[in-house]
């Protein structure tokens, strides 16, 4: 799975949460996480994952 596929899944989760009537902040968290992933270069993303520091990216918190 590449970063764009993961971002698409996060966006889909956001849509499903919205349809379910979930908290708007939770929905926006998934949308923000998707945008954050899309903005990161593949090499940088691989480094963050390897160092287990993906949670340090703004918009991609520990809950995601």
Kindly provide the radius of gyration, computed on alpha-carbon positions and rounded to a whole number of angstroms.
Answer: 12 Å
Strand content: under 5%
Strand count, sense and barrel status of the largest sheet are:
none
Spatial shape? elongated
Uncertain runs? none
Average pLDDT confidence is 91
Order of helices and strands: HHH
Total helices: the number is 3
Into which percent range does the helicity of residues fall? 55-70%
The number of E-state strands comes to 0
Q: Structural class of the helices, strands and pairings? A: mainly alpha
Query: How far apart are the termini?
Result: 16 Å
Overview of this protein structure:
It is a single chain. The model has no long low-confidence stretch (mean pLDDT 91). The protein contains three helices and no strands. It has helices spanning 3-20, 24-39, 42-50. The chain is mostly helical and 64 residues long. Helix 1 runs antiparallel to helix 2 (24-39). Helices cover 67% and strands 0% of the residues.
